[in-house]
Amino acid sequence: MNKNSEIVLHVEDLGVSFGGLEAIAKIDISVARGEFIAILGPSGCGKSTLLNVLSGLLPPTRGTVSVEGRPMYRPESEAPHVGYVFQEHRLLPWRTVKQNLELVLASSKVPQDRWDDNIDNILETLHISRYKDSWPLRLSGGERQRVSIARALLVEPAYVMMDEPFSTLDELTARTLRQELIEIWQRTGTTIVFVTHSIREATFLADRIVILTRGPALVDDSYTVPIDRPRTYEDPRIGQIEAEIVERVLSVWEPEKK
Amino acid sequence: MTRTGELLWSICAILLLIAAWWFGYSHTKFIASPIEVARALPQFLGNPETWFHMGVTFQRLAVGLAAGVILGMSAAFAIHRSPLAHQFLSVYVSFSLRTPSAIAAIMALAMFKRDEIGYMAVVGFITFPFMTVGLLDGLRSADHKLDDVAKIYRVSTWCHVRDFLVPFLAPYTFSALRNAHALAWKIVVVAEIFGAAQEGFGAEFNYAFDYFLLVDLHLWLLVFMALVLFAEYGVLRTLERRVFKWRLREGE
User: Fold this and answer.
1) What is the span of the domain harbouring residue A15?
2) Whole-structure pTM over 0.90, yes or no?
3) Which of A81, A87, A92 is the best mutation test for B, with the most CBs of B within 10 A?
Protein backbone atom coordinates (compact mmCIF):
# COMPACT_ATOMS: atom_id res chain seq x y z
CA MET A 1 0.00 0.00 0.00
CA ASN A 2 1.46 3.38 -0.94
CA LYS A 3 0.46 7.01 -0.28
CA ASN A 4 0.39 7.88 3.37
CA SER A 5 -0.29 5.18 5.87
CA GLU A 6 -3.59 6.54 7.22
CA ILE A 7 -6.29 4.02 6.45
CA VAL A 8 -9.48 5.64 5.17
CA LEU A 9 -11.43 2.52 4.41
CA HIS A 10 -10.99 -0.78 6.18
CA VAL A 11 -13.07 -3.81 5.31
CA GLU A 12 -12.62 -6.94 7.38
CA ASP A 13 -14.12 -10.39 6.94
CA LEU A 14 -17.00 -8.90 4.95
CA GLY A 15 -19.75 -11.30 3.95
CA VAL A 16 -23.14 -10.60 2.36
CA SER A 17 -25.94 -13.10 1.84
CA PHE A 18 -29.42 -12.65 0.46
CA GLY A 19 -31.49 -15.38 2.06
CA GLY A 20 -29.50 -18.53 1.38
CA LEU A 21 -27.59 -16.98 -1.53
CA GLU A 22 -24.07 -15.83 -0.76
CA ALA A 23 -23.10 -12.74 -2.77
CA ILE A 24 -19.81 -11.98 -1.01
CA ALA A 25 -17.98 -14.80 0.77
CA LYS A 26 -15.13 -12.95 2.45
CA ILE A 27 -13.46 -9.69 1.59
CA ASP A 28 -10.65 -7.93 3.41
CA ILE A 29 -9.43 -4.65 1.93
CA SER A 30 -7.68 -1.61 3.34
CA VAL A 31 -7.44 1.62 1.38
CA ALA A 32 -5.00 4.35 2.36
CA ARG A 33 -5.84 8.06 2.19
CA GLY A 34 -5.22 9.38 -1.29
CA GLU A 35 -4.91 5.94 -2.81
CA PHE A 36 -6.50 5.05 -6.16
CA ILE A 37 -7.56 1.42 -6.21
CA ALA A 38 -9.30 -0.42 -9.01
CA ILE A 39 -11.52 -3.41 -8.37
CA LEU A 40 -11.65 -5.92 -11.18
CA GLY A 41 -14.23 -8.62 -11.22
CA PRO A 42 -16.37 -10.58 -13.68
CA SER A 43 -20.05 -9.82 -14.14
CA GLY A 44 -22.18 -11.06 -11.27
CA CYS A 45 -19.26 -11.51 -8.89
CA GLY A 46 -20.68 -9.14 -6.29
CA LYS A 47 -18.97 -5.85 -7.23
CA SER A 48 -22.21 -3.88 -7.04
CA THR A 49 -23.07 -5.50 -3.72
CA LEU A 50 -19.63 -4.51 -2.43
CA LEU A 51 -20.14 -0.92 -3.57
CA ASN A 52 -23.57 -0.83 -1.96
CA VAL A 53 -21.99 -1.91 1.32
CA LEU A 54 -19.18 0.65 1.01
CA SER A 55 -21.62 3.44 0.18
CA GLY A 56 -23.79 2.85 3.21
CA LEU A 57 -26.77 1.41 1.32
CA LEU A 58 -26.54 -2.23 2.39
CA PRO A 59 -25.53 -3.51 5.83
CA PRO A 60 -23.28 -6.58 5.53
CA THR A 61 -24.36 -9.94 6.89
CA ARG A 62 -20.96 -10.42 8.49
CA GLY A 63 -17.80 -8.45 9.14
CA THR A 64 -17.00 -4.79 9.61
CA VAL A 65 -16.54 -1.70 7.48
CA SER A 66 -14.67 1.22 9.06
CA VAL A 67 -14.35 4.66 7.51
CA GLU A 68 -11.66 6.93 8.94
CA GLY A 69 -11.50 4.66 11.97
CA ARG A 70 -15.24 4.79 12.69
CA PRO A 71 -17.32 1.67 12.11
CA MET A 72 -20.27 1.95 9.72
CA TYR A 73 -23.61 0.26 10.30
CA ARG A 74 -23.63 0.62 14.07
CA PRO A 75 -26.75 2.15 15.64
CA GLU A 76 -24.63 4.91 17.17
CA SER A 77 -22.49 5.57 14.07
CA GLU A 78 -23.15 8.41 11.66
CA ALA A 79 -23.04 7.47 7.96
CA PRO A 80 -19.82 8.79 6.38
CA HIS A 81 -19.79 11.37 3.59
CA VAL A 82 -18.88 9.47 0.46
CA GLY A 83 -19.05 10.31 -3.23
CA TYR A 84 -20.40 7.97 -5.87
CA VAL A 85 -20.10 8.15 -9.63
CA PHE A 86 -22.53 5.73 -11.21
CA GLN A 87 -22.35 4.04 -14.58
CA GLU A 88 -25.09 6.41 -15.73
CA HIS A 89 -24.94 10.00 -14.52
CA ARG A 90 -28.05 9.86 -12.30
CA LEU A 91 -28.43 13.63 -12.23
CA LEU A 92 -31.85 15.08 -11.52
CA PRO A 93 -33.00 16.21 -14.98
CA TRP A 94 -35.33 18.86 -13.51
CA ARG A 95 -32.46 20.67 -11.78
CA THR A 96 -29.72 22.63 -13.51
CA VAL A 97 -26.10 21.58 -13.13
CA LYS A 98 -25.60 24.10 -10.34
CA GLN A 99 -28.82 23.06 -8.60
CA ASN A 100 -27.77 19.39 -8.76
CA LEU A 101 -24.51 20.29 -7.06
CA GLU A 102 -26.20 22.48 -4.46
CA LEU A 103 -28.55 19.65 -3.57
CA VAL A 104 -25.75 17.38 -2.36
CA LEU A 105 -23.88 20.28 -0.77
CA ALA A 106 -26.94 21.01 1.35
CA SER A 107 -26.51 17.70 3.16
CA SER A 108 -22.71 17.88 3.37
CA LYS A 109 -20.53 19.52 5.98
CA VAL A 110 -19.31 22.18 3.53
CA PRO A 111 -20.32 25.64 4.86
CA GLN A 112 -22.79 27.45 2.61
CA ASP A 113 -20.53 30.48 2.12
CA ARG A 114 -18.05 28.23 0.28
CA TRP A 115 -20.58 26.60 -2.05
CA ASP A 116 -20.36 29.08 -4.92
CA ASP A 117 -16.55 29.12 -4.96
CA ASN A 118 -16.32 25.35 -4.68
CA ILE A 119 -18.85 24.86 -7.48
CA ASP A 120 -17.07 27.34 -9.74
CA ASN A 121 -13.69 25.71 -9.06
CA ILE A 122 -14.80 22.16 -9.67
CA LEU A 123 -16.70 23.08 -12.85
CA GLU A 124 -13.65 24.93 -14.13
CA THR A 125 -11.39 21.99 -13.33
CA LEU A 126 -13.71 19.70 -15.27
CA HIS A 127 -14.04 22.20 -18.15
CA ILE A 128 -17.81 22.53 -17.82
CA SER A 129 -18.12 26.05 -16.37
CA ARG A 130 -20.27 27.16 -19.27
CA TYR A 131 -22.87 24.54 -18.43
CA LYS A 132 -23.41 25.73 -14.86
CA ASP A 133 -26.99 26.84 -15.56
CA SER A 134 -27.79 24.18 -18.16
CA TRP A 135 -30.28 21.35 -17.83
CA PRO A 136 -28.62 17.91 -17.75
CA LEU A 137 -30.62 16.64 -20.74
CA ARG A 138 -28.99 19.32 -22.90
CA LEU A 139 -25.49 17.99 -22.14
CA SER A 140 -23.60 15.19 -23.88
CA GLY A 141 -22.92 11.88 -22.11
CA GLY A 142 -19.36 12.93 -21.30
CA GLU A 143 -20.45 16.30 -19.93
CA ARG A 144 -23.08 14.69 -17.73
CA GLN A 145 -20.52 12.28 -16.36
CA ARG A 146 -18.22 15.24 -15.62
CA VAL A 147 -21.05 16.79 -13.60
CA SER A 148 -21.51 13.49 -11.80
CA ILE A 149 -17.79 13.49 -10.93
CA ALA A 150 -18.07 17.09 -9.74
CA ARG A 151 -20.99 16.09 -7.51
CA ALA A 152 -19.01 13.25 -5.96
CA LEU A 153 -15.97 15.43 -5.24
CA LEU A 154 -17.84 18.49 -3.95
CA VAL A 155 -19.10 16.90 -0.74
CA GLU A 156 -15.50 16.54 0.51
CA PRO A 157 -15.95 12.78 0.78
CA ALA A 158 -13.89 10.30 2.78
CA TYR A 159 -13.59 8.42 -0.52
CA VAL A 160 -15.21 8.36 -3.93
CA MET A 161 -16.59 5.19 -5.45
CA MET A 162 -16.83 4.91 -9.19
CA ASP A 163 -18.82 2.11 -10.79
CA GLU A 164 -17.61 1.75 -14.38
CA PRO A 165 -18.22 5.46 -14.93
CA PHE A 166 -16.82 5.61 -18.45
CA SER A 167 -18.21 2.35 -19.80
CA THR A 168 -21.10 4.00 -21.64
CA LEU A 169 -18.94 6.68 -23.31
CA ASP A 170 -17.10 6.53 -26.61
CA GLU A 171 -13.42 5.62 -26.29
CA LEU A 172 -12.06 9.08 -27.11
CA THR A 173 -14.27 10.79 -24.51
CA ALA A 174 -13.48 8.05 -21.99
CA ARG A 175 -9.72 8.54 -22.54
CA THR A 176 -10.01 12.29 -22.00
CA LEU A 177 -12.05 11.78 -18.86
CA ARG A 178 -9.61 9.22 -17.47
CA GLN A 179 -6.78 11.68 -17.98
CA GLU A 180 -8.76 14.47 -16.30
CA LEU A 181 -9.74 12.17 -13.45
CA ILE A 182 -6.07 11.43 -12.76
CA GLU A 183 -5.26 15.16 -12.80
CA ILE A 184 -8.08 15.94 -10.36
CA TRP A 185 -7.14 13.01 -8.14
CA GLN A 186 -3.51 14.17 -8.00
CA ARG A 187 -4.56 17.74 -7.27
CA THR A 188 -7.16 16.94 -4.58
CA GLY A 189 -5.67 13.79 -3.05
CA THR A 190 -9.12 12.19 -2.93
CA THR A 191 -9.24 8.46 -2.21
CA ILE A 192 -10.85 6.61 -5.10
CA VAL A 193 -12.31 3.12 -5.32
CA PHE A 194 -12.86 2.45 -9.03
CA VAL A 195 -14.75 -0.59 -10.28
CA THR A 196 -14.15 -1.67 -13.86
CA HIS A 197 -14.26 -4.59 -16.26
CA SER A 198 -11.42 -3.16 -18.29
CA ILE A 199 -7.97 -4.37 -17.31
CA ARG A 200 -6.35 -1.67 -19.43
CA GLU A 201 -8.40 1.04 -17.73
CA ALA A 202 -7.49 -0.33 -14.30
CA THR A 203 -3.81 -0.46 -15.25
CA PHE A 204 -3.83 3.08 -16.60
CA LEU A 205 -5.63 4.58 -13.61
CA ALA A 206 -4.89 2.71 -10.41
CA ASP A 207 -2.11 2.48 -7.87
CA ARG A 208 -3.35 -0.95 -6.94
CA ILE A 209 -5.68 -3.45 -8.57
CA VAL A 210 -7.83 -5.74 -6.46
CA ILE A 211 -9.01 -8.84 -8.29
CA LEU A 212 -12.24 -10.48 -7.18
CA THR A 213 -13.14 -14.09 -7.88
CA ARG A 214 -16.23 -15.19 -9.73
CA GLY A 215 -19.10 -14.95 -7.21
CA PRO A 216 -19.37 -15.23 -4.33
CA ALA A 217 -16.67 -12.59 -4.27
CA LEU A 218 -13.35 -13.11 -2.56
CA VAL A 219 -10.29 -10.90 -2.87
CA ASP A 220 -8.08 -13.30 -4.67
CA ASP A 221 -5.18 -11.07 -5.52
CA SER A 222 -3.95 -7.55 -5.09
CA TYR A 223 -1.56 -6.11 -7.61
CA THR A 224 0.45 -2.89 -7.27
CA VAL A 225 0.92 -1.20 -10.63
CA PRO A 226 4.67 -0.52 -10.90
CA ILE A 227 4.50 2.40 -13.35
CA ASP A 228 5.28 5.98 -12.37
CA ARG A 229 2.90 8.77 -13.28
CA PRO A 230 2.13 10.39 -15.60
CA ARG A 231 1.16 7.32 -17.57
CA THR A 232 0.32 7.25 -21.24
CA TYR A 233 -1.62 4.73 -23.27
CA GLU A 234 1.37 4.46 -25.59
CA ASP A 235 3.68 3.34 -22.77
CA PRO A 236 4.68 -0.24 -23.68
CA ARG A 237 4.79 -1.15 -19.98
CA ILE A 238 1.01 -0.63 -19.78
CA GLY A 239 0.57 -3.37 -22.38
CA GLN A 240 3.04 -5.67 -20.61
CA ILE A 241 1.38 -5.22 -17.24
CA GLU A 242 -2.03 -5.64 -18.83
CA ALA A 243 -0.89 -9.01 -20.23
CA GLU A 244 0.46 -9.99 -16.84
CA ILE A 245 -2.78 -9.08 -15.11
CA VAL A 246 -4.81 -10.92 -17.76
CA GLU A 247 -2.86 -14.04 -16.80
CA ARG A 248 -3.59 -13.48 -13.14
CA VAL A 249 -7.22 -12.64 -13.76
CA LEU A 250 -7.75 -15.70 -15.91
CA SER A 251 -6.22 -17.90 -13.24
CA VAL A 252 -8.69 -16.39 -10.78
CA TRP A 253 -11.78 -16.25 -12.97
CA GLU A 254 -11.31 -19.41 -15.01
CA PRO A 255 -8.94 -21.66 -13.04
CA GLU A 256 -10.06 -24.80 -14.87
CA LYS A 257 -8.59 -23.46 -18.14
CA LYS A 258 -5.16 -23.02 -16.65
CA MET B 1 -44.21 20.46 -37.66
CA THR B 2 -43.46 24.19 -37.47
CA ARG B 3 -45.55 26.60 -35.40
CA THR B 4 -46.99 28.11 -38.59
CA GLY B 5 -47.93 24.65 -39.85
CA GLU B 6 -49.63 23.81 -36.55
CA LEU B 7 -51.54 27.10 -36.66
CA LEU B 8 -52.67 26.49 -40.23
CA TRP B 9 -54.01 23.05 -39.37
CA SER B 10 -55.88 24.46 -36.36
CA ILE B 11 -57.44 27.19 -38.52
CA CYS B 12 -58.47 24.57 -41.11
CA ALA B 13 -60.13 22.49 -38.36
CA ILE B 14 -62.07 25.54 -37.08
CA LEU B 15 -63.17 26.50 -40.61
CA LEU B 16 -64.38 22.95 -41.20
CA LEU B 17 -66.34 23.12 -37.94
CA ILE B 18 -67.98 26.39 -39.01
CA ALA B 19 -68.82 24.83 -42.38
CA ALA B 20 -70.39 21.85 -40.63
CA TRP B 21 -72.31 24.24 -38.38
CA TRP B 22 -73.57 26.14 -41.45
CA PHE B 23 -74.54 22.90 -43.11
CA GLY B 24 -76.45 21.86 -39.97
CA TYR B 25 -78.19 25.21 -39.81
CA SER B 26 -79.25 24.95 -43.48
CA HIS B 27 -80.69 21.46 -43.10
CA THR B 28 -82.31 21.37 -39.62
CA LYS B 29 -84.50 23.50 -37.42
CA PHE B 30 -82.55 22.98 -34.22
CA ILE B 31 -79.32 24.76 -35.06
CA ALA B 32 -79.02 28.55 -35.02
CA SER B 33 -77.39 30.55 -37.77
CA PRO B 34 -73.67 31.14 -37.17
CA ILE B 35 -74.12 34.74 -38.30
CA GLU B 36 -76.94 35.39 -35.82
CA VAL B 37 -74.87 33.87 -33.04
CA ALA B 38 -71.86 35.98 -34.01
CA ARG B 39 -73.99 39.13 -34.02
CA ALA B 40 -75.42 38.38 -30.57
CA LEU B 41 -72.06 37.49 -29.04
CA PRO B 42 -70.81 41.03 -28.09
CA GLN B 43 -74.02 41.88 -26.25
CA PHE B 44 -74.02 38.45 -24.58
CA LEU B 45 -70.47 38.93 -23.32
CA GLY B 46 -71.26 42.47 -22.19
CA ASN B 47 -74.09 41.25 -19.98
CA PRO B 48 -73.02 40.91 -16.30
CA GLU B 49 -75.48 38.01 -15.92
CA THR B 50 -73.34 35.92 -18.27
CA TRP B 51 -70.25 36.41 -16.10
CA PHE B 52 -72.23 35.78 -12.94
CA HIS B 53 -73.41 32.37 -14.19
CA MET B 54 -69.93 31.52 -15.42
CA GLY B 55 -68.56 32.44 -12.00
CA VAL B 56 -71.08 30.23 -10.19
CA THR B 57 -70.22 27.19 -12.31
CA PHE B 58 -66.50 27.91 -12.08
CA GLN B 59 -66.70 28.08 -8.30
CA ARG B 60 -68.51 24.74 -8.10
CA LEU B 61 -65.98 23.20 -10.42
CA ALA B 62 -62.91 24.64 -8.70
CA VAL B 63 -63.92 23.51 -5.22
CA GLY B 64 -65.07 20.08 -6.43
CA LEU B 65 -61.95 19.53 -8.50
CA ALA B 66 -59.68 20.63 -5.66
CA ALA B 67 -61.42 18.15 -3.37
CA GLY B 68 -61.09 15.42 -6.02
CA VAL B 69 -57.38 16.16 -6.48
CA ILE B 70 -56.63 16.14 -2.75
CA LEU B 71 -58.68 13.00 -2.15
CA GLY B 72 -57.26 11.25 -5.20
CA MET B 73 -53.65 12.03 -4.37
CA SER B 74 -54.10 11.03 -0.73
CA ALA B 75 -55.70 7.75 -1.80
CA ALA B 76 -52.84 7.05 -4.25
CA PHE B 77 -50.17 7.54 -1.59
CA ALA B 78 -52.12 5.46 0.93
CA ILE B 79 -52.70 2.63 -1.57
CA HIS B 80 -49.03 2.68 -2.54
CA ARG B 81 -47.79 2.60 1.05
CA SER B 82 -50.18 0.21 2.76
CA PRO B 83 -51.62 -3.14 1.62
CA LEU B 84 -54.52 -2.56 3.98
CA ALA B 85 -55.30 0.82 2.41
CA HIS B 86 -54.94 -0.85 -0.99
CA GLN B 87 -57.60 -3.42 -0.15
CA PHE B 88 -59.88 -0.84 1.41
CA LEU B 89 -59.59 2.17 -0.91
CA SER B 90 -59.40 0.24 -4.17
CA VAL B 91 -63.07 -0.61 -3.70
CA TYR B 92 -63.98 3.09 -3.63
CA VAL B 93 -61.77 3.91 -6.60
CA SER B 94 -63.26 1.07 -8.59
CA PHE B 95 -66.80 1.99 -7.57
CA SER B 96 -66.33 5.65 -8.44
CA LEU B 97 -64.69 4.90 -11.79
CA ARG B 98 -67.63 2.76 -12.84
CA THR B 99 -70.47 4.97 -11.62
CA PRO B 100 -72.20 6.77 -14.52
CA SER B 101 -71.74 10.52 -14.13
CA ALA B 102 -75.45 11.28 -14.45
CA ILE B 103 -76.33 8.75 -11.72
CA ALA B 104 -73.64 10.22 -9.46
CA ALA B 105 -75.08 13.70 -10.08
CA ILE B 106 -78.64 12.63 -9.23
CA MET B 107 -77.52 10.75 -6.10
CA ALA B 108 -75.34 13.61 -4.84
CA LEU B 109 -78.03 16.22 -5.40
CA ALA B 110 -80.64 14.02 -3.72
CA MET B 111 -78.33 13.43 -0.75
CA PHE B 112 -77.41 17.09 -0.37
CA LYS B 113 -80.92 18.33 -1.21
CA ARG B 114 -79.68 20.44 -4.15
CA ASP B 115 -77.38 22.39 -1.89
CA GLU B 116 -74.21 23.96 -3.38
CA ILE B 117 -72.15 21.25 -1.75
CA GLY B 118 -73.96 18.63 -3.83
CA TYR B 119 -72.53 20.02 -7.10
CA MET B 120 -69.06 20.14 -5.60
CA ALA B 121 -69.39 16.64 -4.14
CA VAL B 122 -70.31 15.10 -7.46
CA VAL B 123 -67.32 16.74 -9.19
CA GLY B 124 -65.02 15.53 -6.40
CA PHE B 125 -66.48 12.01 -6.48
CA ILE B 126 -66.14 11.61 -10.24
CA THR B 127 -62.65 13.13 -10.56
CA PHE B 128 -60.86 11.61 -7.55
CA PRO B 129 -60.31 8.12 -9.03
CA PHE B 130 -58.65 9.62 -12.13
CA MET B 131 -56.12 11.33 -9.88
CA THR B 132 -55.59 8.15 -7.87
CA VAL B 133 -55.04 5.91 -10.89
CA GLY B 134 -52.75 8.43 -12.63
CA LEU B 135 -50.61 9.09 -9.58
CA LEU B 136 -50.40 5.40 -8.68
CA ASP B 137 -48.87 4.76 -12.10
CA GLY B 138 -46.21 7.32 -11.24
CA LEU B 139 -45.56 5.92 -7.79
CA ARG B 140 -45.26 2.40 -9.17
CA SER B 141 -42.71 3.44 -11.79
CA ALA B 142 -40.62 5.45 -9.31
CA ASP B 143 -36.96 5.62 -10.25
CA HIS B 144 -35.18 3.82 -7.41
CA LYS B 145 -31.82 4.67 -8.91
CA LEU B 146 -32.44 8.27 -7.92
CA ASP B 147 -33.45 7.07 -4.45
CA ASP B 148 -29.95 5.57 -4.14
CA VAL B 149 -28.48 8.96 -4.98
CA ALA B 150 -30.57 10.52 -2.21
CA LYS B 151 -29.42 7.89 0.28
CA ILE B 152 -25.73 8.03 -0.64
CA TYR B 153 -25.61 11.82 -0.44
CA ARG B 154 -27.69 11.72 2.76
CA VAL B 155 -30.43 13.95 1.44
CA SER B 156 -33.00 14.73 4.14
CA THR B 157 -36.48 13.23 3.94
CA TRP B 158 -38.03 16.62 3.23
CA CYS B 159 -35.54 17.32 0.40
CA HIS B 160 -36.13 13.83 -0.94
CA VAL B 161 -39.86 14.48 -1.20
CA ARG B 162 -39.48 18.05 -2.54
CA ASP B 163 -36.58 17.57 -4.95
CA PHE B 164 -36.85 13.93 -6.01
CA LEU B 165 -40.36 12.57 -5.54
CA VAL B 166 -42.57 15.56 -6.41
CA PRO B 167 -40.75 16.47 -9.67
CA PHE B 168 -40.71 12.80 -10.67
CA LEU B 169 -44.46 12.54 -10.13
CA ALA B 170 -45.21 15.87 -11.81
CA PRO B 171 -45.82 14.43 -15.33
CA TYR B 172 -48.21 11.81 -13.94
CA THR B 173 -49.95 14.44 -11.82
CA PHE B 174 -50.41 16.80 -14.75
CA SER B 175 -51.67 14.04 -17.00
CA ALA B 176 -54.21 12.93 -14.38
CA LEU B 177 -55.16 16.53 -13.66
CA ARG B 178 -55.85 17.24 -17.33
CA ASN B 179 -58.19 14.23 -17.53
CA ALA B 180 -59.90 15.10 -14.25
CA HIS B 181 -60.23 18.75 -15.30
CA ALA B 182 -61.85 17.93 -18.65
CA LEU B 183 -64.25 15.55 -16.95
CA ALA B 184 -65.04 18.04 -14.18
CA TRP B 185 -66.40 20.63 -16.64
CA LYS B 186 -68.70 18.07 -18.20
CA ILE B 187 -69.97 16.66 -14.93
CA VAL B 188 -70.63 20.02 -13.29
CA VAL B 189 -72.94 21.03 -16.14
CA VAL B 190 -74.68 17.65 -16.05
CA ALA B 191 -75.19 18.08 -12.30
CA GLU B 192 -76.58 21.58 -12.80
CA ILE B 193 -79.05 20.34 -15.41
CA PHE B 194 -80.14 17.28 -13.41
CA GLY B 195 -80.27 19.28 -10.20
CA ALA B 196 -82.48 21.91 -11.85
CA ALA B 197 -80.05 24.55 -10.64
CA GLN B 198 -81.21 28.17 -10.67
CA GLU B 199 -77.74 29.54 -11.44
CA GLY B 200 -74.79 28.46 -13.53
CA PHE B 201 -74.13 27.25 -17.06
CA GLY B 202 -76.30 24.18 -16.72
CA ALA B 203 -79.25 26.25 -15.50
CA GLU B 204 -78.91 28.62 -18.47
CA PHE B 205 -78.55 25.78 -20.97
CA ASN B 206 -81.64 24.21 -19.54
CA TYR B 207 -83.59 27.47 -19.65
CA ALA B 208 -82.56 28.19 -23.25
CA PHE B 209 -83.47 24.66 -24.27
CA ASP B 210 -86.86 24.69 -22.54
CA TYR B 211 -87.82 27.98 -24.23
CA PHE B 212 -86.24 27.03 -27.54
CA LEU B 213 -83.85 30.03 -27.46
CA LEU B 214 -81.53 28.59 -30.07
CA VAL B 215 -79.15 31.54 -30.29
CA ASP B 216 -78.78 31.66 -26.50
CA LEU B 217 -78.16 27.92 -26.43
CA HIS B 218 -75.33 28.29 -28.93
CA LEU B 219 -73.92 31.32 -27.15
CA TRP B 220 -73.75 29.44 -23.87
CA LEU B 221 -72.14 26.49 -25.62
CA LEU B 222 -69.54 28.71 -27.28
CA VAL B 223 -68.68 30.52 -24.07
CA PHE B 224 -68.52 27.25 -22.19
CA MET B 225 -66.11 25.76 -24.74
CA ALA B 226 -64.00 28.91 -24.77
CA LEU B 227 -63.73 28.80 -20.99
CA VAL B 228 -62.77 25.10 -20.93
CA LEU B 229 -60.18 25.62 -23.67
CA PHE B 230 -58.77 28.65 -21.87
CA ALA B 231 -58.46 26.67 -18.64
CA GLU B 232 -56.81 23.79 -20.52
CA TYR B 233 -54.45 25.67 -22.83
CA GLY B 234 -54.15 29.05 -21.13
CA VAL B 235 -53.65 27.79 -17.60
CA LEU B 236 -52.85 24.07 -17.38
CA ARG B 237 -50.63 23.75 -20.46
CA THR B 238 -48.84 27.01 -19.72
CA LEU B 239 -48.15 25.83 -16.20
CA GLU B 240 -47.01 22.49 -17.55
CA ARG B 241 -44.58 24.16 -19.97
CA ARG B 242 -43.08 26.13 -17.10
CA VAL B 243 -42.75 23.07 -14.88
CA PHE B 244 -41.22 20.96 -17.64
CA LYS B 245 -38.92 23.56 -19.14
CA TRP B 246 -36.00 21.20 -18.41
CA ARG B 247 -37.25 18.71 -21.01
CA LEU B 248 -35.73 18.56 -24.46
CA ARG B 249 -37.85 20.16 -27.10
CA GLU B 250 -38.40 18.54 -30.47
CA GLY B 251 -35.28 18.81 -32.60
CA GLU B 252 -32.91 19.38 -29.67
Assistant:
1) 7-80+158-253
2) no
3) A92
